Structures are given as C-alpha cells and as structure tokens.
Amino acid sequence: MGEVRIAAVAAHFGRDLEFDLHRIATLIDHARQAGAALLVLPDAALGGYLADLRHPDPDALPPALEPDAPELKTIASLAAEMTVCVGYCESEGTRRYNAAVCVTGDGVLGRHRKVHQPPGESVAYQAGEEFAAFDTPVGRMGMLIDYDKTFPESARSLAVDGAEILACLSAWPTSITNRAPRMAQDRQSRLFDLYDQARAAENQVVLVSSNQTGAMGGMRFLGQAKVVGPGGEVLARTWSKAGIAVAELDPAQEIAHARRVLNHLGERKPAVYRKG
User: Start and end of every CN hydrolase domain (predicted)?
Assistant: First the structure.
C-alpha cells in the first residue's frame, strides 16, 4: 500500500439524522482535502449516544437503523474512494446493537457490534458476539467500540486475525461518578489515552481512535481523537476539541519495523495462558 494518510474525528452528534449526515459529509470533505485514505468517525455518529449511561430512558434511545439503511448507503456514496468507519444504532428485529460499519463507495467492507457493555448499556443494546478483521484498500482492519478497548483480548483477537489497523470508535464520556473540575484531570480522560496507546503497543499495530465531543443529557464527551503508531507513540491528536487528527505513514512498514526485534504476536505462548 505504501504511505497513506489516516484521519480520526472528534465531533458532536445528536439525534437529528439529517444534521448528522450533513456533518459527516462535511468531515469527509475536509478529510479528502487533507488527502486522507482512511477516516474513522465516532461511535453513534448517526443518531447520537445515550443521554444517561446508568439509567437509559427506553423512550429516548437513538434511532435504530437497518444494516442496509439509506443513511449508510449515503455515507458509502460520500466515501467514494476513501475508506470510512462510522458508528450507529443497528436494528435486527426487536433487538438493538451499538454497531459500526466500514465502507467505501463500492459498499460494506466490515461490520462490528459492540461486545463489552458498561453497566446500564444492556438496557438499550444487545451485546455483540465476535471480533473479526477484514480487508480494505488501506490494509487489513478491525473495529472496536468504546468499552471494547478496555479489554486487551478485544484488540489482541483482531491482531491475531491479521489486523494491521484498529479503528476504535467511541462515545466516551468523562467520569460519571467522580468528574474532575478540568477534563485533563479526569480519570476517564487518562484511561482513554492509556488504552489507545497500550492496545497499539502491545499488538504492534496502528490504532485510530475517534470520539464524540460536547454533551448529551448528563454525559460530557472527551474528544481526544488520535492516530497511534505500533510503538504506542501518538502521531496526531485533537486533544479535547472537535477536529480531525491526521497522520501520514506506511502501516505495513511501521509494523514491520516495530516487530523487527521483538514480535509480540509471534512470541506469545497461548498454551500456558489460562482459559476463560
């Protein structure tokens, strides 16, 4: 593939799907002008996230979209030659999932349903059941949503499946139980960055982390979108403000360099790891 520009978004999205689509179109246009081949939008970029994580209101949930909804087809059309990942609420009969899809103008490349759920989210969403990598024009990828990246096994499963790039789509808020006076001092702000860098470094992959900004109900989102190299180094970031973090790199070359002496995946010893 060679060198590509990879972009991660920090932006606010709410319940108004028309507004969200307009913002997504603008972000895709800005990323294209920056030369990005991959753009990762936040979790719940279509319809917004929950307004209350501990006690979600069943009557005020994000709009649920079918896997082949026209809004997703519109994003694929807007993506054209770019690879774009976007989060939304997916419906399957009476079930809802916190989901993500990766598309180009040619259609769907990969899908993911959030597996790990913080307390309260199970009121609004069913849990996904797998992690699977998929091939894209920018390399083999995998997707994680929000809390998924807290668990090392999530990213490791995708890396073992050959993923070179991990797209982590989030609607990650500040601490709900112990909010700090300044966002930079918030416990969740620290953990969000820690997980991004650790998941990249321990698997020696490129990690692209998007997140929502602003507020919805009692939730205040962190932003902090970033691109992280396979050594855990932050290559580009937005901090807490809305924007697009863009980094240019050759993922395959950077990964090969990171694994040249110490190859974490190749040096695992699964036979001695405790199951379950």
Answer: 4-251
Count structural domains, the chain: 1
Residues in a beta bridge with 46? 88
Distance CA 31, CA 244 (A): 8
**Contact call for residues 205 and 159 (beta carbons, < 8 A):** yes
Of 131, 199, 196, nearest to 161 (Cα)?
A: 131
Calpha distance 50→41 (Å, rounded):
17
Domain containing residue 13: CATH number: 3.60.110.10
List of residues 6+ apart from 54 with CB closer than 8 A: 119, 120, 176
pLDDT tens-place string over residues 133-177: 999 999 999 999 999 999 999 999 999 999 999 999 999 999 877
- Per-residue pLDDT of 81-121, as tens digits, reads 999 999 999 999 999 999 999 999 999 999 999 999 998 89
Domain ranges, residue 108: 4-272
pTM, to two decimals: 0.96
Q: Which residues, in sequence order, are bridge partners of residue 236?
A: 227
CA angle 53, 57, 59 (to 5 degrees): 145
The tokens for 62 are 């994000």
